[in-house]
Structures are given as C-alpha cells and as structure tokens.
Design a protein that fits this description.
mainly alpha; three-stranded antiparallel beta sheet; about 10% strand
Length: about 130
C-alpha cells in the first residue's frame, strides 16, 4: 500500500512574496465554492408567486430608498472579503528569505558527574571517589 504525500504548492506573487498553499486550504476552498454555488442556485431558482405587491409600480419608483436598501450589498461583500482573507491567512504568506549570521556571547556552565568504573577505586576515605 502506497502513501500519498501531498504538500500543496507554492505560488510566487510578483516576486516579492510567496504563498504556500497546503492541501487543507485547497479542500476548504473547494467546499466554500460548492457551498456558494448551492446558495446561489437555491436563492435564484426558488419559486416566486405571481402576485403584485403594489397596484401601481410608480409608487415604488417615487419612494425614497432607505440606507438599508442602499447598503444591502455591503454585508455580503464584507463576508466574501473576510472569507478571502481567511484563505490568504491559511496560505501562510511570506516575503522573501534572508540569511543572516548571528553571533552571540555567553557563558556555558556544565555540571558533570563521572560515574565510570575508575571512580570505584577504594583509595579515598570513606569509600570511593563518588
């Protein structure tokens, strides 16, 4: 039985940043696309009644539009933008690499205990060198 190892792919954007797209992001993106297509289908293909809400359409044309009507597209656009930014974040964007040599100074303190057989010699009092 073989093991499938899929590490995703790397996208170079304009030479200054790279996106490494892992397989989970690809699956999530596919699921979101399918969900959006289903939402669009059910939203625009539902049955509508043949009734008319107003007796004269000119009444509706003269009515002032509220702020809610003016900005009703804003909420779905913000949701799509937030979802797109989540996918960008999951793709782990990174800007170029730089190799730097870092030097640091410090003091190393080591505690060493020699427990070899030579320490078992009986030449020290009371028993041995340990």
């Amino acid at each position: 039985m073989s093991h499938l190892d899929f590490a995703g792919f790397t996208v170079d954007l304009f030479g200054w940043t790279k996106l490494t797209v892992p397989p989970l992001v690809i699956l999530l993106l596919g699921g979101v696309v399918i969900a959006l297509l289903l939402w669009y289908y059910f939203r625009h293909h539902r049955t509508t009644s043949a009734s008319i809400g107003f007796s004269d359409i000119r009444i509706v044309a003269r009515a002032a539009r509220s702020n809610r009507q003016r900005f009703r597209i804003l909420v779905p656009l913000l949701r799509v933008a937030a979802l797109a930014l989540v996918f960008v974040a999951l793709a782990r964007p990174r800007a170029g690499t730089e190799v730097r040599e870092v030097t640091s100074e410090g003091i190393d303190i080591m505690m060493v205990l020699d427990v070899s057989s030579s320490m078992q010699a009986e030449d020290f009092k009371p028993h041995n060198r340990l």
